[in-house]
Amino acid sequence: MSRSDLDRFDRKLLTLVQRDAGQTADALAEQVGLSASAVLRRLKRLRETGVILGEIAVVDPLKTGKPNFFLAALEIERERPELIARLRQWMAAEEQIQQVYYVTGTADFVLVVVAPDVGAYDALMSRLMADNPNVRRFTTNVALGVGKRGLFVPIPD
């Protein structure tokens, strides 16, 4: 499904469920101007076509053990497709790595990592280096506080 296949109802639904996926079909229908059954059909189609990738609960980290957030910038040796694919697969399999960005600039990847403490972060990065010899080096920034955290994607009208 392409951007042009999304009508104004789809766009409004996507905005609403990104803000609160727990809303009932009736509540969504009222806000969008459709019937609850039409909303359910549209949401089903958006899931089946991969527009909606998943629905998650956003957990307050302060109420679940106050983990630390680390921003790691990785530099790789060679940009061979098979080596990059292997590294991406490794990072995708690690629960502590929340986000991975392939970027331009001095780093090749920027990671958002959550860990209970510096020791756990260090252990993860030691494994990353040992399991991925194509990673030349990494630098780390420790988040002292979180001003905003989210995955909201603005949907233009």
TrEMBL record:
GO terms for cellular component: cytosol. It comes from the Bacteria. The keyword Transcription applies. Pfam families: AsnC_trans_reg, HTH_24. GO terms for biological process: regulation of DNA-templated transcription; response to amino acid. Residues 6-67 form the HTH asnC-type domain. This is DNA-binding Lrp family transcriptional regulator. It comes from Sphingomonas kyeonggiensis. GO terms for molecular function: sequence-specific DNA binding. Keywords: DNA-binding, Transcription, Transcription regulation. Signal peptide: none annotated. SUPFAM superfamilies: Dimeric alpha+beta barrel, Winged helix' DNA-binding domain.
